[in-house]
Amino acid sequence: MTALPRAVDLGLIGCRVCGLVCRNVAGDERLDGDGVGDAMACPRCGSALRRRKWNSYARTWALLIAGFILYIPANVLPIMRTASLNDIDDNTIISGVVELWTAGSADLAVIVFVASIVVPMLKFLSLGMLLVSSRRGSDWARPQRAKLYRLVEFIGYWSMLDVFVVALLTALVRFSVLSRVEPLPGVIFFGLTVVLTMFASMSFDPRLIWDGRNTDD
Amino acid sequence: MTEDSRVEQDPPSRDALPRPVVQQRRFKESLIWLVPVLAALVGLSLVIHNWMQTGPQIVVSFQSAEGLDAGKTPVKYKNVVIGRVKNIRLSSDHSHVLVSVALEKSAEGFATKGTRYWVVRPRIGLGGVSGIDTLFSGAFIGADVGESNQSQDEFTGLEAPPAVSHGALGRSFVLHSEDLGSLDVGSPVYYRRIQVGQVASYKLDADGKGVSLQIFVDGPNDRFVTASSRFWNASGVDLSVGANGLKLNTQSLAAVLAGGVAFQDPPGPHDSTPAPQDTSFQLFDDRATAMAPPDGEPHYIRMRFEQSVRGLAVDAPVEFLGINIGKVVSVRLDYDRKMQKFPVLVGAVVYPKRLGSAYDKLEALARERGENPDLSRTIGRLIAHGLRAQARTGNLLTGQLYVALDFVPHAAKATFDPDAKPLTIPTAPGSFDKLQEQMANIVDKLDKVPFDSIGKHLDQSLAGLDATLKQVNGQTLPAFKHTLDGVQQTMGSANEALSGDSPLQRNLGATLEQVQRMARSLRVLTDYLGGHPEALLRGRRADSPPTVQAPPNPPRQEDKP
After folding, report:
1. Domain around B90
2. Nearest Cβ partner for A73 among B15, B19, B43
3. Among A36, A174, A171, A161, which residue's Cα sits nearest to residue A97?
4. Could you say which DSSP state residue A100 is in?
5. Radius of gyration, CA atoms only, chain A
6. Residue A32: pLDDT over 50
7. Does B33 touch chain A (CB under 8 A)?
8. What is the mean pLDDT of chain B?
9. A21 in contact with B at a CB cutoff of 8 Å?
10. DSSP symbols for B333-375
């Protein structure tokens, strides 16, 4: 409590749109931006005034869980069908990685593995960890957690790699009987997973990392 | 700037700041939890869908997993996918592979007893091509459902597709044959050259002495298989040369190449009630044998040939007076210690019934005499009359022999034991053998001609001749040339003498002229004497004025010497 004051300590709240600083209706916990109660609005531009992103914990958790649920069929169901003259091959993400590896393209296998398996899993773990630790108000490694969050947000787009590969191949490899690539339902689930995790990381408010009972520097 | 300073300067003057508008929230509860609920629902629906579609899991064992691919190879019935291979593993004793198949929910009926599974691979045979689509799509497992409702989850896969699918109309029959020939599962069955069925399976008889074929004749043509139907192997080409010329008899081209079975009722009155399911028939080698009246009981006979039987092969015919009564079944070499020879033992099977009424009469005769009307007795009597077995040349080109039972005139007396087993027929050397013998004799005699000394003498004579010729060349010929020169000289002088302006020629011309003149006067004389014959006596009359020609003539006459 000896640290520098935050806006909330001073009873202030800023409009994110027009920059007007308003009085936080102090003591009214209901109106705390993180709550689910009535919302404050900027008296000048009318946009919602929030101390933190609205309902950040719940939204992030919900999207993260939804993403994780969809991540299961995304991995179990085949994402791509490669049909050639005498062979029809349905590949799941992991079987594609294995196939690439055994075919000798270890580099490609690593890229696909990292983009499709490691990154989403890291996202789930990181976001989950961030949510839990922020909720508990832990003051453990706050700057690193903040960095981790930024990394997660940045890396999120690249998880769509698999979806792009399937979309590109489907469009390009269309040689009728000879060879054909078709997307299979798995890729939809995978895309949904990526989108949901991106939303989840967007709805997480990194300021929550710093909202702790014990504030330091 | 001013704001900054104000914030810095009077943080307590918070009340001067505007107060936010408080809005009533329409939804108190967060709707965001609908997203994971929705995701969970989708996931759940997938699980339920999957669970609903999962049928029974069965295990099929095959000899090899060739062409099968875990997770990919489908199981099809009537070309509809009813399941998929889940995994493939070796059996515990490594003798076969166990293929786990996940059947679909709708295909539960295929996990019952009696269902057959086999791997459909491309098969290209002479009888046709099957499974050609699997060249591109990869092998799949074919299924044929049984009738039973008893569920079963372990099956033994067939190595070849079953020729007859379950529930097909028709009847199956069993054929017995000595060997399989060119028949195979799927070989066609013909009735009047129309394909009416196929060979469903074959197996060796338990004693290994024959082959049993199961054929399936499709309905409604199965009614043509009667109790007296004859089946024969329709493979190959039947070429026969008869009095009517060359006759080529085949079934379809496919049957020629791949083999087939044909059946028909024998001509004449016969039992034409349709044969019941699984009736056994004999499979004959060709149509002629199939249609021939039954051969009756076969008898084994043995013949002992002293001479070479090169060209006598197993299956060579045995003929009695030109009628085929059996065939050779074995040709073996023996060793006779006493004679130090290698006789050839030829075994044959004969069907005396083929002799027809002759045999019946012989039998009747034997009965009349009160003898045992057995083949051995009958033959014994015939042998006493000179019946002998001969290995004769059937084909001069190929030198193939056949065994002829024939009456040989002046045959040497042979011992015959009618009780011996097997029956041994005495043999006589064949006509060709005799010819060979005679040829050998001639050759022997030729051998005795002293070609060596003849050659030597001839050589000496030739040497003498050579010397003579040398002499002729050295001496006689020059002398001869000399003589010829002399002759030429003589001829030249003769030529000279005879030339036109030679004195000889001129003298000769003058002489001839004289002779001519003399001849003329002689004629005048004769003419005169013709007219005056008295002149010979009286001389010429002085006064003969009337002859005008006379005066010139006498001087000419006087000119003559």
Report:
1. 48-156
2. B43
3. A161
4. H
5. 23
6. no
7. yes
8. 81
9. yes
10. E--BTTTTB--EEEEEEE-GGGGTHHHHHHHHHHHHTT----H
In our burial notation (b when 16+ CB lie closer than 10 A, e otherwise), range B196-206 reads bbbbbbbeeee
Higher pLDDT, B11 or A136: A136
Domain presence at residue B324: yes
Q: What is the pLDDT of residues B222-239, one digit of tens each?
A: 888 888 888 888 876 666
Neighbouring CB atoms inside 10 A of B481's CB total 9
Distance between alpha carbon B56 and the CA centroid of its chain, in Å?
A: 54
CB environment A173-191: b (16+ within 10 A), e (fewer): eeeeeeebbbbeebbbbbb
Give the count of beta carbons closer than 10 Å to the beta carbon of residue B90: 11
The band of B161, judged by pLDDT with boundaries at 50, 70 and 90, is confident
Q: For residue B489, what pLDDT band results from cuts at 50, 70 and 90?
A: very high
Q: pLDDT band at residue B6, thresholds of 50, 70 and 90?
A: very low
CB of B514 within 8 Å of a chain A CB? The answer is no
Contacts of B473 (CB under 8 A, 6+ apart): none
Q: Dihedral of the CA atoms B540, B541, B542, B545 (nearest 10)?
A: -120
Residues B324/B289, Cβ–Cβ less than 8 Å: no
Distances from the Cα of B343 to the Cα of B47, B181, B338, angstroms: 86, 33, 12
Looking at the structure, tell me whether residues B303 and B362 fall in a common domain: yes
pLDDT tens-place string over residues A51-63: 777 778 888 888 9
Q: Which residue of B has its CA nearest to A39?
A: B23
> Is the per-residue pLDDT at A216 higher than 50?
no
Q: Nearest-CA residue of chain B relative to A57?
A: B32
Rounded to an integer, what distance in angstroms lies between the CA atom of residue B277 and that of residue B271? 16
CB B216 within 8 Å of CB B202: no
**What are the structure tokens assigned to B75, written together?**
């199981």
The residue-averaged pLDDT of B115-136 equals 74
Give chain B's length. 561
Asked if residue B299 lies in contact with residue B377, where contact means CB atoms within 8 angstroms, the answer is: no
CA distance B349 to B315: 10
Q: Which of B150, B184, B146, B151 is nearest to B165 (CA)?
A: B146
The residue whose two tokens read 């295929």 is B110
Q: Do B42 and A73 touch (CB under 8 A)?
A: yes
Tell me the domain boundaries of chain A.
7-49, 56-210
* Residues B194, B282 share a domain: yes
A27 touches chain B (CB under 8 A): no
Of the candidate CATH numbers 1.20.140, 1.10.150, 1.20.120, 1.10.10, the domain formed by A56-210 belongs to: 1.20.140
